[in-house]
UniProtKB/TrEMBL annotation:
Gene Ontology biological process terms from the UniProt entry: aerobic electron transport chain; phylloquinone biosynthetic process
Entry GO CC: chloroplast
Organism from which the protein derives: Salix viminalis (Common osier)
Domain FAD/NAD(P)-binding residues, every copy: 83-393
Name recorded for this polypeptide: APOPTOSIS-INDUCING FACTOR 1
SUPFAM superfamilies reported in the protein's UniProt record: FAD/NAD(P)-binding domain (SSF51905)
Source taxonomy: Eukaryota, Viridiplantae, Streptophyta, Embryophyta, Tracheophyta
Coiled coil spans: none
Keywords for this protein: FAD, Flavoprotein, Oxidoreductase
GO molecular function: NAD(P)H dehydrogenase (quinone) activity
């Protein structure tokens, strides 16, 4: 039987209605919240995600006609060369741009590449937890696009994508004809005409699935989210310093994100905190390899994390609620006149692609990563992971080359290399897919995961800078621990 976190309510609203108005903002006030669990029907696919499915998601991007922003047209440096516009500079978009840069082109075919992202930084999301544990600095896992792209021909524009106007359904095929593939409108009013478009806008936290979640829970999906959670923890640590009361943290969801957060936060708070992890499912990490699940259970139990699985009607009190369930792709609107040619979206709002990663019915639009949907050989939608987006970026770059050069496009095949998770400053679980039954854990798993991610960071220059920084930090840590061991030995304790 599936159960769901059904509401988040400030505690002072329950106990004292008059104080409700004081609790107005998640960022500026500290408050207690209660979690109310309710029994749901049997066969609920994802209780938490579907708990408030009736409430319609608020539009991410508003209609341009409602605001009077003067439109400007982006001028490409060369009006003869193909124009590739990439929307979203994450694992899908940035790595596609870098792949295009690394390919060999005939002079007249080398495309001009424009990368658009709302943020000034690329974010290596799998290492956001390390910001909470203090293991990494923000520049290491969130370098600026301007630095990453400094030695390339890729143009970067920081802006939010507002609207798409594809023209490739108007009888054009995918070849390099001179007609434009369509236009994109950004929030600043800039209009970009493209020949080829790459949609890689990722996904964002979905907080409209339970009443109160949007107002009172903290998502953990972006660099800003991680910084807010870190600040909130610092504030709670300060507030409760020297007091008997525990810092109570509730983590909603026990997929990878929830378990990694629970492990990291419980290690940070140690005996000053109580971490409770809640899941509608009766097991944690239902889709993970058994080795990863067992290692995670061991670590969570050693840190006294309370697991509330498939729980029945209960109110929890917490100082901080971390929300890790549900996500939605922030795909832009199409212009009203394009409605009949809307991008084909699945039930989760992801753009459906064929196996060459082109959006169905749109030969000039490639889509990859979390905001796209492609089925594997067994008919299952590929997971929304960095591993998938990273591999798709390689194919998108190659297929753009093939399309521009009138060569056949390659079908994408996902190669599952295994799964990794952090469980704190010196703990991890790593199950490579090529050695069945093997799980690396503890410091060995932690080091292996860090090396694997170092190799995945974008650009040689950035990898080198981060590699030196991590080596220096680990040398400093080793000296510090040697000093503390020596001083203990010398003092006879
Ligand atoms: C905390 C966390 C931990 C994770 N850990 C792992 C892991 O261990 N292993 C793994 O494989 N995967 C992991 N993932 C998932 C992985 O990060 C994503 O699957 C991956 O980032 C998807 O790549 P993407 O390019 O589709 O999206 P993203 O990397 O999210 O990039 C999307 C980009 O689009 C930009 N954008 C969005 N909307 C707009 C707009 N309207 N206008 C302009 N720009 C916009 C964003 O700023 C962002 O830069 C984790 C995710 C999170 C949140």
């Amino acid at each position: 039987m599936a159960l769901a976190a059904s509401a988040l309510t400030p505690l002072n609203r329950i106990s004292n209605a008059n104080r409700w108005s004081q609790v107005s903002s998640r960022a500026s006030h500290s408050f207690n919240v209660s979690l109310l669990f309710e029994k749901r029907g049997i066969g609920f696919r994802n209780g938490i995600a579907a708990a408030a499915a009736a409430s319609s998601p608020s539009p991410v991007i508003e209609d341009i006609s409602q605001k009077e922003i003067p439109q400007r047209i982006y001028t490409w440096p060369d009006n003869k060369k193909p124009r590739v516009c990439i929307l979203g500079g994450g694992f899908g978009g940035l790595y596609t741009a870098l792949r295009l840069e690394s390919l060999i082109w005939a002079d007249d075919k080398k495309p001009q590449v424009l990368l658009v992202d709302q943020s000034e930084r690329f974010v290596f999301k799998p290492m956001l937890y390390e910001l909470l544990s203090g293991e990494v600095d923000a520049w290491e896992i969130a370098p600026r696009f301007s630095e990453l792209l400094a030695n390339t021909g890729i143009q970067f524009f920081q802006d939010r994508v507002k609207m798409l106007h594809p023209a490739d359904h108007l009888g054009m095929n995918g070849s390099t004809g001179s007609c434009s593939g369509g236009t994109v409108v950004l929030e600043s009013g800039l209009l970009i005409e493209y020949d080829w478009l790459v949609l890689a806008l990722g996904s964002e936290a979905k907080l409209d699935t339970a009443p109160g979640a949007a107002e009172f829970a903290f998502p953990f999906s972006t660099l800003e989210d991680a910084c807010k959670v870190d600040n909130k923890l610092k504030e709670l640590e300060r507030r409760k310093f020297g007091k008997d009361t525990l810092i109570r943290v509730a983590v909603v969801g026990c997929g990878y994100s929830g378990v990694e957060l629970a492990a990291t936060v419980s290690e940070r708070l140690q005996d000053r905190g109580l971490v409770q992890a809640i899941n509608v499912n009766t097991i944690i990490l239902p889709a993970a390899p058994p080795g990863n699940r067992e290692t995670a259970l061991k670590v969570l139990s050693s840190r006294k994390v309370q697991l509330l699985l498939g729980y029945l009607r209960q109110i929890l009190e917490a100082d901080l609620v971390l929300w890790t369930v549900g996500s939605k792709p922030p795909l832009p609107q199409l212009e009203p006149c394009d409605r009949p040619h809307e991008l084909p979206l699945n039930g989760r709002g992801q753009a459906e692609t064929d196996e060459t990663l082109r959006v169905k019915g749109h030969p000039r639009i490639f889509a990859l990563g979390d905001s796209s949907a492609l089925r594997d050989m067994n008919g299952r939608i590929l997971p929304a992971t960095a591993q998938v987006a990273f591999q798709q970026a390689d194919f998108t770059g190659w297929n753009l080359w093939a399309a521009i050069n009138d060569r056949p496009l390659l079908p994408f095949r996902f190669q599952n290399l295994g799964e990794m998770m952090t469980l704190g400053r010196n703990d991890a679980a790593l199950s490579p897919s090529f050695i069945e039954g093997l799980t690396l854990e503890g410091p060995v798993g932690h080091a292996a995961r860090k090396i694997a991610y170092l190799l995945r960071l974008p650009t040689d220059e950035h990898r080198l800078k981060v590699g030196i920084s991590w080596l220096t930090k680990s040398a400093v840590d080793s000296v510090a621990s040697l000093q503390s061991t020596l001083s203990k030995v010398l003092s006879g304790s």
